[in-house]
């Protein structure tokens, strides 16, 4: 991996400024497409475009797929439809679809009309019909397919022909006369059974496959479960449509994790550190406003209890403890549920069981925390502050119980409603638990003031 030091970047910028094409090509010739894409991070769009146009079409296509979405759109915006079509012709269909999906409808039609390979253009059009978050939207059509009734010599001839236009061969898929997936043909069988009468006698039956409408999250779990590098995609009656590779799945998982992390952090949509001021403000402000409303609600609750602080001023000292504990417990519970839903270890059908388990955890944690705080208050402020001593411990126990159950219930409910449960691990849980915790604390304190006085 080449180290792009400030000195090297300055040297390259001087070459670009002088329009020294040969020198620039010499700098690029030994770089991997991923390194060239990384290099573009250090340059402005005009400098990046200059270097990009010096590459041959195949390398341009490879670099295009290594760029971040925003950088790719910037670069494509400076190219006409015919030039973009030339890049797409060098991409696998799944990568081509990824690029075209980022463009508006008019641009898509212009680019597709300039693709010379009619079969490739047709495959791209077919793939664009699938939702991008499903197996169909992620699959490519480049694969080796043989018929179960072919002899081994015929199979080998066909494989050689099909492999000429492919960069990687992961599996050989076997279909019947109706194009329904029947199995896979291992390389070992090609070597050890060179004269077999028909492929169906040596193929491996019942390969792991997914339907085109399967969500990406489920596809990723299957890849992990079966340790696959590629997986066939079939339609509702088992006809082979395409294949998904593990690198495509990993890209989707990474993007999904980034979205979930930002959502859990209180960002309403994807945002990058280099996004413009207005875009970052738009992403952050909604949850900040909701948090502000939550704070105002707490102020209102405290205002209604103003007389209680007169009776025992020490009650005010433990407001941050009540709110912070409820938020932490709720976030922990929701994070465990969201993680379980994401990796498949938690079945939504077992939601009642999970709620009961969290109830038990809440009982233990709440009891321990309440007891420790009671002991602390008893020996530090106990005499004359009985209301505070008892109110804080009882409230902490109730808050932990509520937060444990609420933090579990919300993501499970969101999952059933087909809403991203990561929403439950962010400000929503913290704000809600803060308000409910304050209501519990103030209510218990009011009851104890009346009971003890």
Describe this structure in words.
With 453 residues, the chain is mostly helical. The protein is 64% helix and 6% strand. It has 21 helices and 7 strands. The chain has a 4-stranded mixed beta sheet with strand order 1-2-3-4. A 3-stranded mixed beta sheet has the order 5-6-7. Helix 16 (277-304) runs parallel beside helix 21 and helix 20 (386-416) runs antiparallel to helix 21. The longest helix is centred in the last third of the chain and has 31 residues, at 386-416. The chain is extended, with a radius of gyration of 30 Å. It starts with 5 loop residues before the first helix and ends with a helix. The mean pLDDT is 85.
How are the SSEs ordered, and which strands pair?
Blueprint: H1 6-17, H2 21-28, H3 33-40, H4 45-54, H5 57-66, H6 69-76, H7 81-88, H8 93-101, H9 105-113, H10 118-128, H11 135-138, E1 144-147, H12 152-163, E2 172-175, E3 181-184, H13 187-192, E4 204-205, E5 210-211, H14 216-226, E6 230-234, E7 240-245, H15 246-264, H16 277-304, H17 306-311, H18 319-343, H19 351-380, H20 386-416, H21 427-452
Parallel strand pairs: 1-2, 5-6
Antiparallel strand pairs: 2-3, 3-4, 6-7
């Amino acid at each position: 991996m080449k180290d792009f030091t400030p000195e090297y970047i300055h040297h390259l910028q001087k070459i670009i400024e002088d329009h020294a094409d040969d020198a620039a090509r010499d700098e690029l010739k030994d770089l991997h497409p991923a390194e060239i894409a990384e290099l573009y991070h250090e340059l402005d769009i005009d400098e990046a475009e200059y270097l990009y146009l010096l590459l041959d079409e195949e390398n341009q296509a490879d670099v295009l797929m290594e760029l971040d979405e925003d950088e790719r759109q910037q670069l494509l915006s400076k190219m006409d439809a015919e030039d973009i079509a030339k890049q797409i012709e060098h991409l696998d269909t799944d990568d081509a679809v990824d690029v075209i999906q980022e463009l508006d409808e008019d641009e898509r039609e212009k680019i597709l009309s300039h693709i010379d390979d009619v079969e490739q253009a047709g495959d791209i059009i077919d793939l664009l019909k699938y939702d991008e978050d499903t197996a169909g939207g992620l699959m490519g059509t480049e694969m080796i397919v043989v018929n179960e009734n072919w002899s081994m010599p015929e199979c080998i001839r066909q494989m050689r022909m099909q492999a000429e236009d492919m960069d990687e061969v992961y599996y050989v898929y076997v279909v019947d006369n109706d194009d329904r997936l029947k199995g896979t043909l291992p390389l070992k069988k090609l070597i050890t059974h060179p004269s077999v009468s028909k492929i169906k006698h040596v193929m491996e039956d019942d390969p792991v496959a997914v339907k085109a409408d399967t969500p990406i999250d489920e596809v990723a779990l299957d890849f992990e479960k079966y340790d696959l590098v590629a997986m066939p995609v079939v339609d509702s009656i088992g006809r082979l449509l395409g294949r998904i590779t593990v690198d495509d799945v990993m890209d989707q998982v990474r993007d999904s994790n980034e979205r979930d992390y930002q959502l859990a952090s209180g960002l309403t949509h994807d945002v990058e550190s280099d996004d413009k001021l207005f875009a970052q403000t738009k992403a952050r402000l909604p949850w900040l406003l909701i948090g502000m409303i939550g704070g105002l609600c707490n102020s209102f609750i405290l205002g209604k209890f103003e007389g209680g602080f007169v009776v025992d001023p020490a009650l005010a000292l433990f407001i941050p403890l009540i709110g912070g504990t409820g938020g932490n417990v709720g976030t922990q519970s929701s994070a465990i549920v969201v993680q379980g839903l994401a990796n498949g270890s938690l079945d939504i059908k077992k939601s009642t069981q999970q709620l009961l388990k969290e109830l038990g955890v809440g009982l233990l944690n709440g009891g321990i925390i309440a007891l420790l705080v009671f002991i602390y208050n008893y020996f530090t402020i106990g005499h004359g502050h009985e209301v505070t001593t008892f109110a804080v411990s009882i409230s902490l126990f109730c808050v932990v119980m509520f937060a444990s159950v609420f933090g579990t219930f919300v993501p499970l409910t969101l999952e059933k409603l087909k809403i991203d449960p990561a929403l439950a691990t962010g400000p929503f849980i913290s704000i809600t638990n803060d308000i409910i915790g304050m209501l519990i604390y103030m209510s218990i304190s009011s009851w104890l003031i009346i009971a003890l006085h």
